[in-house]
Write a structure and sequence with these properties.
It contains six helices and twelve strands. The protein is of the alpha+beta class. The protein has a domain of 147 residues: Oxidoreductase, molybdopterin-binding domain (Sulfite Oxidase, Chain A, domain 2). A five-stranded mixed sheet has the order 4-3-12-7-8. Strands 5, 6, 9, 10 and 11 form a five-stranded antiparallel sheet that branches. A two-stranded parallel ribbon has the order 1-2. The longest helix is centred in the first third of the chain and has 10 residues. InterPro entries: OxRdtase_Mopterin-bd_dom, OxRdtase_Mopterin-bd_sf, TAT_signal.
Length: 234
Amino acid sequence: MSSEDLRGAPVGRRIVLGMLGLGAAGVAVGAAAQQKVNTALAPIGELDQVLPGAGGFRFYSVVDEVERRTPRDYRLKVGGMVDRPRTFTFAELQKSLPQTQMTRDFQCVTGWRVEDVAWAGVALPDLLDAVGVRAGARAVLFRSFDGAYTESLTMEQARRRDVLVATGMLGGPVTHDHGGPVRLYVAPMYAYKSLKWLGEIEVADRVVPGYWERRGYDIDAWVGRSNGRTDEPT
């Protein structure tokens, strides 16, 4: 995010690859998978200058440049195993569906954490109800409009009230560098599950490993099995 008051610092694709190759602090991956990732990603000498510390966001992308979209031209396609496939505008996400607010921590797999982030948007279960999930659906797949990043959740995970199609954060809009105008936020999991620049949701019969899972990281990326909170979002 470019706003100085959020103390964020941009980190490019080359740095991200190296950082995530260092060891994925806190996430449990098999030794063989971790070694495969570490071997594939060459050490980067400048990492000691950009490794994130406490107190601020760091902004990662797996592509060099992501198209900027405004709320006015934003569209979210929802389809797959649903009764009513639909494309939502930004205004429809904010005005035609139930709204949810929550305050949760944002935990990156590389070790940094931002506490008590205010989020706003549509709880994923409410969005799924709006399109009607068909019998036999077992997973929800997410695609970024960056053209590269993907993620997925089991249907049970997607039905949690702390999984959000976020249209706002920190008391304002989701900025481009934070993955706006709309991003996914999966509160109880590491941040790589919270897909940025959300462009498409597909209800499916199975989980499909996402961008980083195909590179050795856990599909189920729980933070310590919970995010340390028991309060329900509103």
